[in-house]
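Key result, reporting period 2: structure in, sequence out.
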């Protein structure tokens, strides 16, 4: 499944219909939220009954409303999973109109017409900028971003299965805050820190917004200005991430990344903004769909171990140079980490190949070995 994003150009009437659909979905969302806990089936059933008592709901495509049940159900599951992992969790909050920005057509109720427009049931034909061909559409999500509307079209695609992966064209990538990435070929990419650079204009814009009277014309203007700033940051970051991920997927067959536990890392508030600003998660997901093969490995001690002799050289975050007193290796800290990631990755690959030959015999030793090397497979 792959998502493509297209700009929509609704007419004034269609835009009003979009907003009405958002309102309808939000109404259902809040109604169901009030009656939790409910299973997905309960919610679906409740929805069918609601359509009888609340006739305005019949103005919307039924699958769109069903997706609201799905949305709540997924959020509930995510909360439960977090709780299970020992995180503190709250309750789902009521959706306010300013943060409820998308509705979804699943399986049916949409089409791309012959004149290259997006047709949506109950809404009609909408002008769309189709910058690529789409087929096998499974889902269409209509999304509002500031004043703009987008369609996120989910397509099922068949990928050629590459059987032979050349491990010579492999690379380990270490991601960080001071530098965005450093790879095992010594190539380094700085961190553009898009959010940090725009922090002052952002502060100014949100200060202006807070001084305006809510609902006034000037309030709306200030709000739009703030939204545009956020959009600019997002666009710049995405552009950067697309270019970097493209570079790696083009030049390498096998990419080893460290497995990050960003959720844990963002608990440190001084680091949280820098981490989220860098976009590691997005980078990982872009790589996964672009590259031939991406393997994640556990990043324990990658910056401490010496990549040449395995000696442990503990250092704080501030120490940028790796100096091994055993083998006299002097190397950039992140370069050393990238080399470690590559070595562990290649080792894990060897283990996998061995497993394919004699799975029963090696299962135990593999487990022990992977525990020792900290490789997640
Ligand atoms: Zn060493």
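The corresponding designed sequence is given below.
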């Amino acid at each position: 499944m792959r998502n493509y994003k297209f700009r929509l150009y609704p007419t004034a009437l269609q835009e009003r219909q979009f907003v009405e659909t958002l309102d309808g979905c939000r109404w259902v969302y809040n109604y169901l939220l009030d009656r939790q806990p409910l299973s997905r089936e309960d919610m679906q059933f409740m929805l069918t009954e609601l359509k009888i008592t609340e006739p305005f709901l019949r103005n919307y495509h039924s699958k769109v409303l069903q997706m609201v049940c799905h949305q709540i159900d997924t959020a509930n599951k995510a909360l439960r999973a977090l709780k299970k992992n020992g995180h503190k969790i709250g309750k789902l909050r009521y959706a306010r109109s300013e943060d409820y920005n998308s509705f979804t057509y699943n399986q049916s109720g949409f089409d791309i017409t012959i004149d290259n427009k997006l047709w949506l049931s109950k809404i009609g034909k909408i002008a769309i900028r189709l910058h690529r061909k789409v087929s096998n559409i499974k889902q269409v999500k209509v999304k509002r971003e500031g004043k703009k509307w987008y369609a996120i079209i989910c397509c099922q695609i068949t990928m050629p299965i590459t059987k032979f992966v050349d491990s010579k064209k492999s690379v380990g990538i270490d991601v960080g805050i001071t530098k965005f990435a450093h790879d095992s070929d010594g190539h380094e990419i700085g961190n553009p820190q898009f959010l940090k650079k725009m922090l002052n204009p952002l502060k100014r814009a949100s200060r202006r917004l807070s001084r305006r009277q809510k609902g006034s014309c000037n309030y709306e203007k200030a709000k739009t200005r703030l939204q545009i700033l956020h959009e600019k940051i997002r666009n710049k970051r995405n552009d950067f991430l697309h270019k970097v991920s493209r570079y790696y997927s083009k030049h390498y067959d096998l990419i080893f990344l460290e497995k990050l536990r960003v959720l844990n890392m963002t608990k440190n508030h001084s680091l949280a903004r820098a981490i989220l600003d860098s976009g590691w998660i997005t980078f990982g997901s872009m790589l996964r769909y672009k590259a031939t093969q991406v393997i994640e490995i556990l990043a324990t001690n990658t910056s401490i171990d010496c990549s040449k002799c395995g000696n442990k050289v503990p250092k704080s975050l501030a120490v940028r140079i790796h100096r091994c007193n055993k083998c006299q290796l002097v190397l950039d800290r992140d370069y050393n980490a990238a080399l470690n990631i590559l070595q562990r990755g290649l080792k894990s690959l060897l283990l996998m190949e061995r497993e394919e030959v004699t799975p029963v015999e090696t299962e135990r030793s593999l487990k022990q070995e992977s525990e020792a090397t900290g490789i997640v497979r």
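The chain has eleven helices and 14 strands. Residues 357-377 have pLDDT under 50 and may be disordered. This case is discussed further under Risks and Mitigation.
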